[in-house]
Amino acid sequence: LALQGSTVNYMAERMGLAEPVRGDSFGIDLPDNIKAGLTELDVTEPFLRNGATIREVTLPEHALVLFVKRGERYIVPRGNTRLAVGDVLLLAWDDNPEINEQLKELEITR
């Protein structure tokens, strides 16, 4: 059952029964029993308006940047990791209405 449960989303997408979930750059899908969210965020010039490091960019209060994809490289970031236009961030957060609202304000979708 564990294998079956972990493949439901993948098979639904392959069969055209569900829309693809953003997350293809990292290939990570959380099991349904984990009450958290994952999304990707493309780094753009406007996103970097407050600075170019993880600690300087505007993110929801309880969001965590798990990885930065730069070209074909995957970087485990720290607060002083410099971002560049074209990077893709993998964000994780507790799944609660407050954070979901902050994501909407930043125009970040799941």
Features:
2 helices; 4-stranded antiparallel β-sheet
Topology summary:
Elements: H1 2-14, E1 36-42, E2 64-70, E3 73-75, E4 88-94, H2 97-105
Number of beta strands: 4
Q: Main sheet?
A: 4 strands, antiparallel
Low-confidence stretches: 1-6, 16-23
SSE pattern, N- to C-terminal: HEEEEH
Radius of gyration, in Å, reads 15 Å
Mean pLDDT: 76
What is the percentage of strand-forming residues?
A: 15-25%
- Calculate the terminal CA-CA distance, rounded to whole Å: 26 Å
3D structure, described in words:
- The protein has 2 helices and 4 strands; from the N terminus they run αββββα.
- With 110 residues, the chain is α+β, with helices and mostly antiparallel strands.
- Strand 2 and strand 3 form a beta hairpin.
- The chain is globular.
- The N terminus is likely disordered.
Brief characterization of the structure:
By secondary structure, the chain is an alpha+beta fold.
